[in-house]
Amino acid sequence: MQNVSTCLLFDDQAEEAAAFYVSLFPNSRIIDTKYYLEGAPRPAGSVLTVQFTLDGAEYVALNGGPHFPFTPAVSLVAYCDSQEAVDTLWRTLSAGGKEGQCGWLTDRYGVSWQVVPRALLKLLNTVDKAASQRAVSAMMKMTKLEIAALQRAYDGA
Questions:
Q1: Three-class DSSP labels, the chain
Q2: Whether pTM exceeds 0.85
Q3: Residues 35-62: tens digit of each pLDDT
């Protein structure tokens, strides 16, 4: 068990969301599910928390009610090794949600994600600051990030 974990507060979709998320990433699984007991603010036996891992990192999904909705102030970042991985994750996560700018989206549960190709990190971490700035400028005009277009911008093409 990790010493620090992220807790995602859902109204009543914790179990559904956790199952959806673990289906998207390798090395992911549901670890444990806890249920409300008698006298709790929710019906006894309904899901309280779901502990799960996404590619080895632990999270907790909590059914706590509608009082605190998600905002883009906190997002999960998913790094992708190929355009195919970006495309697949983008399509799956944004279904029923909302696409944003610069690789950001909000999924059907209201959780904000950044779908980032690792290639972008290489383009931004170079000594050629002008080339990196061209890649950033291109990124700012995109919704889903396109590796080839980012590379073309970096190259000045």
A1: CCCCCEEEEECCCHHHHHHHHHHHCCCCEEEEEEECCCCCCCCCCCEEEEEEEECCEEEEEEECCCCCCCCCCCEEEEEECCHHHHHHHHHHHHCCCEECCCCEEECCCCCEEEEEEHHHHHHHCCCCHHHHHHHHHHHHCCCCCCHHHHHHHHHCC
A2: yes
A3: 999 999 899 999 999 999 999 999 999 9
